[in-house]
Design goal:
The structure is a single chain. By secondary structure, the protein is an alpha/beta fold. It has two domains: 2-172, Rossmann fold (3-Layer(aba) Sandwich), CATH 3.40.50.11930; 187-357, 3-Layer(aba) Sandwich (Rossmann fold). It is 39% helix and 17% strand. The protein has helices at 15-27, 73-86, 101-114, 135-143, 154-163, 187-194, 213-224, 242-250, 266-274, 290-297, 310-313, 328-340, 344-354, 360-368; strands at 2-6, 32-40, 65-69, 90-95, 118-123, 148-151, 169-171, 200-204, 230-234, 257-260, 278-281, 302-305, 320-323. A seven-stranded parallel β-sheet has the order 3-2-1-4-5-6-7, sandwiched between helices. Helix 7 (213-224) crosses helix 12 (328-340). The longest helix has 14 residues, at 73-86. It is elongated, with a radius of gyration of 21 Å.
């Protein structure tokens, strides 16, 4: 099958870029894949942090054409001309932000009415976490041109059907992010290198309000009465970090919180997961999480909230714990239960067994079944 994929890839940062690169790599094992990526994905006012990974030297793949500009319609037409010329069986878009709806709507409209190519939309978020009044209109504008939809959670499937009642949608999953280099340095040496205690919980990824970090910080005082540990926060701050620093100071947590406020290049990712006992995702809104699947790739258990599809991945009491969002008290209790119940080893063994069902091979089969 000939497939054209439109989406970010390295050097673009973030989970969608990694997802798309791995998707193309795995599709290419059986199919002829052409990857078209962005020359400019978002303007600065939409995406305030640096969009490019300038540190990771080792690429996962790719032979992408970097030609699509979100603000230049002439590049949209140029992309369509490639689709028309190549005559692929399938065109794949990645749907994340309604801001890109005009780009995708234009290309999908031309593809739908002037070629025989079928269009698949992989929905990472049917609706964005930080909602705006025009989101549904922009989504509906694009969705009417789409032949097939792939979502990663039951919540997204429900949101999609609400917007397009007759959508041809299949429920998939966020697959494992299992390409990060694993180093041989021992956990104790890594902890010494980073100045951490013997027990470490990890919050990883870009810090945005919907990810609920503030509730994890508020949970710490209760945790520290029972367990002496460090909270390791690793990632860029979307809106700035002052409110988090103030909360840490007000709660006198300076000796138990270590912040590494930067985007982590691929070669360093394993350091932070290896040094930690458990990943904590205190999200107040979500669909799925590449960070969760990165933790599973390292056989790390996860404590998370029952929002979006996170509860569909974490088996409560087996591969981690699931608690209500925005509840610091219950979050602290789950962290205490993890340590007091000595769950680290048994949960990690369970993750190693359970993660097999999140393989790229299984996801590719779903895409092939459309």
């Amino acid at each position: 099958m000939k497939i054209v994929v439109i989406g970010p890839t390295l050097p673009y940062k973030g989970g969608i870029s990694h997802y798309n690169t791995l998707l193309c790599k795995n599709l290419s094992k059986k199919h002829q894949v052409e990857l078209i990526s962005w020359k400019r994905r978002y303007p600065k006012f939409i995406y305030p942090v640096d969009q490019l990974d300038k540190e990771s030297k080792k690429k996962i793949s790719s032979d992408a054409r970097f030609m699509l500009d979100c603000l230049n319609p002439f590049t949209w037409l140029k992309v369509f001309s490639i689709i028309k010329k190549k005559k692929p069986h399938l065109l794949i878009f990645h749907w994340v932000s309604p801001f890109l709806s005009p780009v995708f709507t234009a290309i999908s409209f031309l593809t739908k009415y002037f070629t025989k190519t079928k269009i698949l939309l992989i929905c990472h978020n049917v609706l964005p976490h930080e909602k705006r009044f025009a989101d549904k209109f922009l989504a509906k504008m694009l969705f009417r041109n789409i032949d097939h939809f792939l979502v990663h959670s039951k919540k997204d499937r429900g949101d999609l059907i609400f917007i397009k009642k007759n959508a041809n949608v299949k429920l998939g999953f966020m697959p494992l992010f299992d390409f990060f280099e694993k180093k041989n340095m021992s956990k104790s040496k890594l902890r010494k290198k980073l100045g951490l205690k013997n027990k470490v919980i990890l919050f990883f990824g870009i810090v945005r309000e919907y990810k609920g970090l503030i509730y994890l910080i508020k949970a710490l005082p209760k945790v520290l009465k029972s367990v002496n540990l460090d909270l390791l926060i690793v990632g860029e701050f979307w809106e700035g970090k002052n409110k988090y620093l103030k909360e840490i100071k007000d709660l006198k947590l300076q000796n138990n919180v270590k912040i590494i406020a930067k985007y982590v290049p691929d070669k360093e990712v394993s350091d932070y997961f290896s040094v930690s006992d458990v990943l904590v995702l205190p999200y107040i809104d979500a669909t799925q999480s590449a960070i969760l699947q990165t933790a599973f790739a390292f056989n790390k258990p996860v404590i998370t909230t029952n929002v979006g599809g996170l509860k569909e991945v974490v088996d409560d009491g087996k591969t981690g714990f699931v608690v209500p969002p925005g509840n610091s008290s219950l979050l602290s209790e789950s962290i205490i239960k993890f340590y007091k119940g000595n769950k680290s080893k048994s949960f990690s063994l369970n993750v190693a067994k359970e993660k097999k069902k999140f393989s790229w091979k299984s996801l590719i089969k779903i895409i092939e079944s459309f």
